[in-house]
Q: What sequence folds into this?
């Protein structure tokens, strides 16, 4: 996917001024947050499960090459094939080759962030193959030629009216006078339109929430059933997955599944959790003849060895962005690439470079809500701080900001000089603001005073006032 | 739940914080009063300036480590270090040991300071066992939970317990009290539109609560929220929780002038 | 392709070596974990006695908009199915799984029901399948693909009906996996899974339009479970 992350500031500015977006995002705040809280309250073992899930992933990451070896052997033993791909270009080429060998004309797709990451749809289209998104949210944004704005609710930024307008514009063979007022009617129309596409598809492509080493299986988690129709009807099933998705056993995946849906949507369990192993067996009445797994690196192996390793524990639940006040203010598109919210702020620079995505880890107050709700206990603010450290070392921080911070630190490291400088500055500021008690505007403080008043200082520093009281014992 | 405190009159080093020092010393004096009323002997080390959060959160580990060492050295020898700020207390308690993890000369000293450092309300309730205060405050207040204090130090019940013991005071819960106000240090000036959206939401909640006074434990948050409330023409007053707990509310509220 | 595999594995191996772990110990740890299949924390609600387990299964399934009819014996299933179709104004035409136990039910007692076995066809409106297990902790069905269980029956028709015996209900997902492994072992396919294992919890749904739940997105709009009580409580 093309990145607009370098334009984050402009994106964010436009987003906060968008009333339609604000209306749509209100649902994120009220819906996901309350539902997750209810589900968590209902399961006394939830915190213990978070610890266990984190430990499973940490153990797996510690032995990732060994688990991938065993995973690959099981896939082959069950009649499937693993394609190792170093980057997006290799993955696109691998998928295209499989589709061309199958003589595919149309391909149905379940939701896959990896497919977004490698820009798969554009590549297929450029080679005369039509990809059809089947997750309703993904289908809607495909009609609009938009990227997803949330990793589990891709169309969360849209209101019902916009969706109705798109359906009317694109479903040309349906009677124009039909009613599409109600969400029910929109869903029914999507069901009807997509059913035909499911049945005629030559290849089905899904992502994978997990890969299981013990059995050589892939796991998808949906509520709609679109992933299931994608992987059972066509002749060929392709799974696209990044290599950190592997977990050791069926028991391990069960543990992690207990925290996934609850963290994502507040459901006890998703409607459909599907474990797929190889192609159809000779005696099966339905199912694909071929099963392929595109195993993608694209930067993960590098992260295994650096300070961002913990991010590889992510299970793509979306809880972090559901709870992030910055995400609530700007929505997902402002982040400019596949992964929005706090996870995006850490992962995007790792995958497409800090020069392109430098704003993302900076646009955070470190409030910590993301880490508090992450089922895998990923220390997201710490990871964002690590990016800021890299930017500072490499002088990627804007010069004015860097200068101001160095000046402050210079003074702070010299308490006597600090005392003198602040006495002067605060004295002046306090005197200037003594009547009103605040400033509506102030030179050099435009960032603050554009939107709020700046309270004036009292005029004397505490240190000076304390010394004046002549209390002894100050060291 | 107070720690077993065998020290009758502990020596407390006051970490006043740069914002209180520069912008609102009355919070510092209110803090001293509360500590002294709780039986502590308070001293204010001269060699303190800033806990180093601005450097730390901007990725400048070198300056952050230097300020950490300076602070640790200044506050050695006290029984406790207390700060009227959740974010500064968390910096000392949570982040100094991590910052100096690979410095054998300083790591233990950082851990020792961390173990003795508290945010003000947590110190009063959890360490000194303060249950009732002598202050009076007529009117309705509401309390915003600053993020660092809440999530890094677990401060939630303590300020509410202390406010609950104040005669004449009605505490009304702030809707979405635990959502960030949009200050975030440099964030509020680097991303002003996003910060404004967040503080706008917060201001709406504050006004909607019907409270006359907004309280919190961090001056950065308070200046951000007070500035927005003033710009929006709201009549809600903002103070640091220490001012009300100490019964020292003669100073004009944050952002108020002599005329207000 | 193997060139890419080599380069990726090399990076992963070096990352592991840098952490200082002994190579032989690492292999042992991995082999050990795969063999041990240790369970994580199992919720208390997944550890009830069998009768309570069945009640919990029903309650959780209904919470997720599945509907449940409890019948005394398998002979009662066709009548229950006919009654459900009538109550919902659905046509009396069923595509049933080519499952010996289901085909052997007394369908003749419901002469108005037209019953055909096989995989789902595009215009089938109602399907009836068995299940491998019911998992009480979240009211979830486990279905295995195979000659007696075409996966298309679970997804293509608008109404999916499932016959579940009370003795198929277990507490936790891990119990269902244990039974799966036992079944594979008994069939001489040690360690093998079917092509598809479906966990199904209620009918299909989406919240993609303004975060309001709508049932019947692409999969079935209705999921009806006929729970056969005989064998309940004996733990078999």
A:
């Amino acid at each position: 996917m093309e990145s607009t992350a370098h334009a984050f500031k402009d994106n964010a500015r436009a987003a906060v001024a968008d009333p339609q977006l604000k209306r749509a995002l209100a649902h994120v705040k009220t819906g996901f947050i309350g539902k997750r809280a209810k589900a968590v309250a209902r399961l006394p073992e939830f915190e213990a499960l978070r610890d266990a899930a984190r430990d499973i992933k940490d153990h797996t990451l510690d032995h990732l090459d060994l688990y991938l070896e065993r995973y690959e052997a099981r896939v082959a033993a069950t009649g499937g094939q693993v394609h190792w791909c170093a980057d997006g270009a290799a993955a696109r080429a691998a998928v295209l080759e499989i589709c061309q060998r199958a003589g595919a004309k149309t391909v149905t797709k379940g939701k896959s962030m990896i497919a977004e990451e490698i820009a798969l749809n554009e590549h297929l289209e450029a080679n005369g193959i039509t990809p059809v998104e089947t997750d309703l949210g993904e289908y809607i944004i495909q009609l609009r030629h938009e990227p997803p704005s949330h990793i589990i609710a891709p169309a969360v930024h849209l209101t019902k009216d916009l969706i109705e307008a798109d359906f009317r514009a694109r479903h040309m063979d349906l009677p124009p006078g039909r009613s599409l007022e109600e969400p029910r009617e929109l869903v029914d129309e999507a069901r009807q339109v997509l059913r035909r596409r499911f049945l005629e598809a030559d290849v089905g492509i899904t992502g994978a929430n997990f890969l299981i080493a013990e059995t050589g299986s892939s796991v998808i988690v949906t509520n709609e059933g679109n992933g299931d129709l994608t992987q059972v009807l066509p002749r060929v099933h392709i799974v696209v997955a990044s290599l950190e998705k592997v977990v050791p056993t069926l028991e391990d995946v069960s543990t992690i599944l207990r925290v996934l849906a609850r963290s994502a949507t507040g459901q006890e369990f998703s409607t459909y959790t599907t474990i797929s192993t190889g192609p159809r067996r000779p005696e099966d009445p339905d199912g694909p003849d071929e099963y392929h797994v595109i195993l993608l690196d694209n930067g993960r192996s590098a992260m295994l060895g650096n300070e961002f390793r913990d991010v590889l524990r992510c299970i793509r639940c979306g809880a972090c962005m559901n709870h992030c006040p910055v995400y609530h203010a700007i929505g997902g598109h402002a982040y400019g690439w596949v992964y929005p919210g706090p996870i995006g702020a850490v992962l995007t620079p790792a995958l497409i470079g800090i020069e392109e995505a430098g704003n993302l880890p900076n646009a955070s107050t470190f409030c910590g809500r993301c880490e508090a709700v992450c089922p895998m206990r990923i220390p997201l603010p710490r990871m964002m701080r690590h990016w800021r450290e890299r930017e500072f070392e490499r002088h990627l921080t804007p010069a004015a900001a860097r200068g101001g911070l160095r000046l402050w630190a210079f003074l702070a490291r010299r308490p006597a000089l600090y005392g003198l400088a602040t006495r002067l500055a605060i004295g002046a500021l306090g005197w200037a603001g003594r009547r009103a008690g605040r400033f509506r505007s102030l030179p050099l403080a435009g960032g603050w005073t554009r939107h709020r008043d700046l309270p004036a200082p009292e005029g004397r520093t505490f240190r000076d006032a304390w010394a004046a009281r002549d209390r002894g014992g100050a060291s | 739940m107070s720690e077993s405190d065998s020290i009758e009159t502990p020596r407390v080093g006051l970490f006043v914080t740069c914002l209180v020092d520069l912008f609102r010393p009355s919070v510092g004096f209110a803090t001293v009063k509360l500590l002294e009323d709780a039986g502590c002997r308070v001293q204010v080390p001269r060699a303190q300036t800033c806990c180093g959060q601005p450097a730390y959160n901007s990725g400048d580990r070198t300056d952050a480590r230097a300020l950490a060492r300076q602070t640790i050295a200044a506050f050695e020898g006290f029984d406790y270090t207390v700060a009227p700020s959740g974010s500064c207390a968390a910096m000392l308690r949570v982040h100094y040991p991590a910052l100096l993890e690979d410095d054998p000369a300083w790591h233990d000293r950082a851990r020792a300071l961390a173990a003795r450092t508290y945010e003000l309300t947590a110190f009063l309730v959890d360490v000194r066992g303060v249950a009732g205060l002598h202050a009076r405050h007529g009117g309705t207040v509401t309390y915003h939970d600053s993020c660092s204090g809440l999530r890094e130090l677990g401060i939630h019940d303590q300020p509410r317990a202390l406010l609950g013991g104040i005669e004449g005071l009605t505490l009304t819960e702030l809707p979405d009290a635990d959502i960030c106000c949009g200050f975030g240090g440099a964030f509020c000036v680097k991303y002003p539109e996003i910060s404004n959206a967040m503080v706008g939401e917060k201001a709406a909640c504050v006004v909607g609560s019907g409270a006359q006074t907004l309280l919190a434990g961090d001056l950065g948050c308070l200046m951000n929220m007070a500035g927005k409330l003033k710009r929006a023409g709201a009549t809600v007053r903002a103070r640091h929780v220490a001012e009300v707990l100490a019964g020292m509310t003669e100073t004009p509220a944050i952002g108020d002038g002599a005329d207000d | 392709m193997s060139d890419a595999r080599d380069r990726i594995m090399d990076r992963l191996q070096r990352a592991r070596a840098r952490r200082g772990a002994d190579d032989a110990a690492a292999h042992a740890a991995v082999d050990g974990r795969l063999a041990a299949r240790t369970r994580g924390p199992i919720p208390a609600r997944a550890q009830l006695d069998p009768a309570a387990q069945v009640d919990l299964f029903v309650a959780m399934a209904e919470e997720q908009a599945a509907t449940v009819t409890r019948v005394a014996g398998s002979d009662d299933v066709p009548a229950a199915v006919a009654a459900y179709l009538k109550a919902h104004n659905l046509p009396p035409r069923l595509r049933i799984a080519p499952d010996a136990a289901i085909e052997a039910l007394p369908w003749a007692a419901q002469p108005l029901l037209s019953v055909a076995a096989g995989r789902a066809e595009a215009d089938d409106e109602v399907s009836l399948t068995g299940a491998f297990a019911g998992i009480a902790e979240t009211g979830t069905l486990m279905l295995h693909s195979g000659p007696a269980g075409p996966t298309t029956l679970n997804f293509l028709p608008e109404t999916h009906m499932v016959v579940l015996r009370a003795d198929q209900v277990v507490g936790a997902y891990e119990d269902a996996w244990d039974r799966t492994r036992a079944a594979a072992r008994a069939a001489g396919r040690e360690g093998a899974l079917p092509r598809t294992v479906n966990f199904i919890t209620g009918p299909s749904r989406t919240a993609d339009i303004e975060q309001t739940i709508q049932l019947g997105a692409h999969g079935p709009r209705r999921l009806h479970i006929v729970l056969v009580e005989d064998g309940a409580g004996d733990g078999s």
Notes: Residues 192-209 of chain B form the longest helix (18 residues). The longest strand of chain B covers residues 136-143. Chain B is about 50% helix and 15% strand. Residues 39 and 156 of chain B are 23 Å apart (CA to CA).
